[in-house]
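User: New here, please read:
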Amino acid sequence: MLVVEDDHDLARAVAELLEQDGFDVDLRFDGDSGLSAGLEGDYDVIVLDIMMPKRSGFRVCQDLRGAGVHTPLLMLTAKEGEWDEVEGLDVGADDFLRKPFERAVLLARLHALVRRFERGRPAPLVVGDVALDSLQRSVLAYGRAISLTPREFSLLEYLMGRVGVETPRGEILDAVWGSDFDGDHNVVEVYIGYLRRKIDVEGQPSFIRTVRGVGYTVRAR
């Protein structure tokens, strides 16, 4: 489980509670590090505060969903009123809990999210001879099991979820690296190259096709 909460005392108290319940817990204390962990890690549930430094919980949730991360997500807030809940659900949160909360209620909500996700788990993405399983974090390409880094996996998952769509490089960058990424924008081309070297079969067209002047797309042969 990933817990992203800027109140260190509360975060550690929640982690202790969850560890007693059998979860392994990673803690992050701001929105940017929480987003990075959510993109790189393989979690059963994410607990996400709303009011945090560097990036709000709303932005973290929106960026995770945009990158194809379907992990069940529970948002926490200390604010009153219904609009936080409306916005949280609109950006992709699965549940919502106001502070202060009872320990038993938090555990019950999290267990319910895990059960719901297991029942409604997303089907594997299959495009031609390439299959990607989001839950197992596995890729099978032309009969070969492919080992990908978390970022490579997120990029491939995003493109396979938009099969046939000619997606601009900027949209890919925002979805997979986050809208606040301030590094070299050529990183998209670099990672496309990594994927091609791992997936493609010599003598056959690349699975990921370059659309000149636009970006990239994947299509079944």
